[in-house]
Specification:
Layout (H helix, E strand, L loop, with lengths): L3 H6 L2 E4 L7 E4 L1 H4 L4 H12 L7 E5 L2 H13 L3 E4 L9 E8 L2 E8 L8 E9 L3 H12 L3 E11 L4 H7 L4 E7 L4
Parallel strand pairs: 3-4, 3-7, 7-8, 8-9
Antiparallel strand pairs: 1-2, 5-6
């Protein structure tokens, strides 16, 4: 199994994407290394043992990859938090700010039974906007947010602190303390 340090070395920095001044952390290079996807999901699942959850909510799009594996491994429901216009039934939505603009996410209304304890999963937390929006959607739909998990935590952008201040504890496998 790849260690978290080995997985960290497989992540590529892409300068000036999606706009000048941003250094994008690209996990597609991790995904192309045989076994690394499975190992990253396994490390995330181990780190999430501190949370009690009975469903997983994955944020589009790279969160789908890790969230689906965790949900399947634990035989749990998977809820998709998507960009607008991608879900076919009645939705609820939330706009949020991100490092380089704004965006909106949606989920199906009544996707889970009321009171479900949900783990939020995404590949990366930066400013915390999408994770906070996902938490808001889940709460508005009658669920409890049990915690959140990310492959990468861009600590220097403060999203993790914002998430914790909103009452959501989280785990991040790879902590990045400065824009590199």
């Amino acid at each position: 199994m790849h260690s978290i340090e080995e997985l960290s070395k497989q992540i590529r920095n892409v300068p000036d994407f999606p706009m000048e001044g941003v250094v994008f952390k690209d996990i597609t290079t991790l995904l192309t290394h045989p076994g690394s996807l499975r190992d990253a999901a396994h490390h995330m699942e181990e780190a999430c043992s501190v949370f009690e959850y009975d469903a997983v909510a994955a944020i589009e799009s790279r969160g789908f990859i890790f969230g689906a594996i965790i949900a399947a491994d634990r035989d749990l429901p998977l809820v998709l938090i998507r960009k607008p216009g991608k879900l076919p039934a009645e939705t609820i939505s939330r706009e949020y700010s991100l490092e380089y603009g704004t965006n909106t996410v949606e989920m199906h209304r009544n996707a889970l039974p009321k009171g479900s304890r949900v783990l939020i999963v995404d590949d990366l937390i930066a400013t915390g906007g999408s994770a906070l929006a996902a938490a808001d959607l889940l709460r508005r739909d009658g669920c409890t947010v049990a915690g959140a998990a990310f492959v990468i935590d861009l600590c220097f952008l403060g999203g993790g602190g914002k998430l914790r201040n909103s009452g959501v504890d989280y785990v991040g496998l790879i902590e990045v303390s400065s824009e590199q």
